[in-house]
Specification:
Nucleotide-bd_a/b_plait_sf, alpha+beta, two-stranded antiparallel sheet, SLIRP/GR-RBP-like, RNA recognition motif-containing protein, 4-stranded antiparallel β-sheet, globular
Length: 115
């Protein structure tokens, strides 16, 4: 089973291949991906590496966390699962501003809310 690692504070010059090669020193790398900004095409300064086993992943975390890469001390730890409902367009609440029943359109007076 593969283990996913978060790599943060990367220099903007790091690409997928250099990320892969640095982690390959510790064992098998299933994938390596630097996150890129959609609009600018520039690195966001973080990425994810998938290692072939938990033991290899732990060795990479221990060996690379805090190491200086082009003057930046990188952060390396186990990736956490995504939080549900986050991001743009957000979750099941839709565009509702609040859960209060007395705020919004059609609840009396001009502007709809209580004063």
């Amino acid at each position: 089973m593969s283990t996913k690692i978060y790599v943060g504070n990367l220099p903007y010059t790091v690409d997928d291949e250099s990320l892969r090669s640095n982690f390959a020193e510790f064992g098998g790398v299933s994938s390596a991906k630097v996150m890129m900004d959609r609009e600018t095409g520039r690195s966001k300064g973080f990425g994810f590496v998938e290692m072939e086993s938990a033991e290899v992943a732990q060795a990479a975390i221990t060996g690379l966390h805090g190491v200086s890469v082009n003057g930046r001390s990188i952060v390396v730890n186990l990736a956490r699962p995504r939080e549900a409902g986050g991001g743009a367009g957000g979750g099941s609440a839709g565009y509702r501003a609040s859960g209060r029943a007395d705020v919004g359109y059609g609840n009396g007076g001009f502007g709809g809310g209580r004063y």
